[in-house]
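Let us work through a complete example step by step.
Step 1: write down the sequence.
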Amino acid sequence: MATPKLTIGLAGNPNCGKTTLFNALTGSHQHVGNWPGVTVEKKMGHALAGEAELDVVDLPGTYSLTAYSEEEKAARNFLIEDRPAAVIDVLNADCLERNLYLAVQIMELGVPLVLALNMMDEVRKSGKDIDTALLTRLTGCPAVETVARQGKGRREILAAAYSLALMRAGEWTPLRISYGPDLDPVLDEMEAIVEAAGIMAGKVPPRWVGLKYLEGDPSVTRRGREASPEAAARLETLTAKVAQHLKKTLNTSPDAIIADYRYGYIAGIVKQVVRYPAINQERIRLSDRMDQVLTHQFAGPVVMALVIYLLYTLTFAVGELPMSWVQNAFSWLGDSLKENMGEGLLRSLLVDGAIAGVGGVLGFVPLIMIMFFLLSALEDTGYVARMAYMLDRVFRIFGLHGTSVLPFIVSGGIAGGCAVPGVMATRALRSPKEKLATLLTAPFMTCGAKVPVFLMLAAAFFPGHEAAVMSAVTLSAWAAALLVAKLLRSTVVRGESTPFVMELPPYRMPTLRGLCIHTWERSWEYMRKAGTIILAISVLIWAAMTFPALPDDANKVFDDRAMAVNAQLESQAETGEDPPAELEDALARIEAERSEAALRTSFAGRAGVAMESLTAPAGFNWRVNIALLGGFAAKEVIVSTLGTAYSLGEIEAEDAAPLSEMLSKDESFSKAAALALIAFVILYAPCSVTIVAMAKEAGWRWALFSMTFNTALAYVAAVALFQVSRLLA
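Step 2: predict the structure and record it as tokens.
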């Protein structure tokens, strides 16, 4: 007889290593969707416990099972509605007391639970020891030591979950904790009412429903009213009565009493199972000593600014040579095709469309890879979490939340992220107003798509100062996001702020293998986008820049001028004299003027020229206008479009010159205009994919608001910066 397939849930707090353990358990056998009714990501995978196949469901990281946030709602609904055979709760064993709070709530539901004591290597480094056998006896839940990032304990945790699931055979045994003389009698009365009324019968223990009423859980309260309005009214009366009593006698609330007794229960367990060797009792841990400096109120921000500056300095110092190799390779490829193919639309498509467009983006791959490698190192060491902790104090001033830091960082707070997962990360914010303000301003960050634009402008107009420029761009993006958030929170998204609680994971030494995997994954996504989306858009833009062709009469004017110069060259050749350089330069200028006239005649050229009256106050010429129009689809297209525009409408630069060199030689585009363009790209409408993500999270009304408001703001900022820069220059 075939062994039944069991479903195992994987729960845990944020930063406990749950996702790492999920990947270790399921490998590549996983898929992603959304939880029913919420927009939180749902991950499912398959694993083997011996020969038994298990379905492993990665629950959203959460501190609690009270359904306030979408993460908590998704996790709790899965436990209640899907009733998994067992749950593995991944605990940061180095912060056992805090992490057991979620475990106790799962135990109160009665779900068969296995405790995965993760990061045990950090526990031992800190001089502590955990008696897992005693923890198993005290909690009634199997406890297994793991180190998820090294794959240790993977088989043992699956075996424990499978054995527990078979032993319990679907039976739930809820934990009963005493909540003191004030709440215990009320809970007993509530339990009887819930059981008699059949509220959530067969899904959760009656006592658990009473606890949720005392905690003020809106979801359970609503379901109680739907099941039995009369019973719900009695439960709400009891809740109000005991709340009033506690306020008068202890100046507290039922949910606070519940939390105190849970932590008291947990503290009694932790005191017995966690041992501190005498030699280490007075020793301050290395992480704590480092945090005294790195999260200091004044020293912390200074160190953070230096870290960001060093990141860019190393990126340019190490990446300059390989970047020149890649750019020269694309230049050689374009020149080779020009030499070996006859003139025509196909050659123009390949050289001026595909190679100039995609090559302009891929030319920055070495810098992007180095930047991603360094960023991964910061994330894996635990420093990015410290950045979030430090910035919470600043964020509260601007009406945001400490949790808003993470969407900002994911979106490109340290250059190289992506606004799409950044927008999705706003789901962790409980307050709808703070979520909306974060969602609308996260796209200001220097995402990986914007980075090539800034690198190009820095190389063209600020040679030798690229790191300083990139650091200034990053800080400017943060400043812009905070100021706009303050404006929004004071006007269209007013609302109260919520408190911030965050665990700081211990510092860890990143592994070279992990850094290389993270770097390759991000870089491949960048390159894949260049080879698919950017290539397609480049071809479309090439077509818009090529058609309609220059009229015959206009072409004849250029042909006549070229024939006149060629006649003079032939005359010089007949006399045996070397032709003067002025004649050859004149011939090159005629062809450049022809190319530019043809580009101006095209659909894209006409659009760019038509916009010049609007964008001239910001210093943008018609080529830049075309590129910015393409940037609405994807920000990388700005670079590829400029590459195509300068290849089709050559100015004075040589064929093999990199885009940054061609741009710097364009007399119609100044350094002041470059600064204005940087500001515009930071602020203007998010790319099309981000707009769709914003619509899914907050609705199309806010997504369209972001497009129009951000673009209008970008225009005002660009005009102001250009005009001020010109005056100062």
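Step 3: interpret the result. The chain is about 65% helix and 5% strand.
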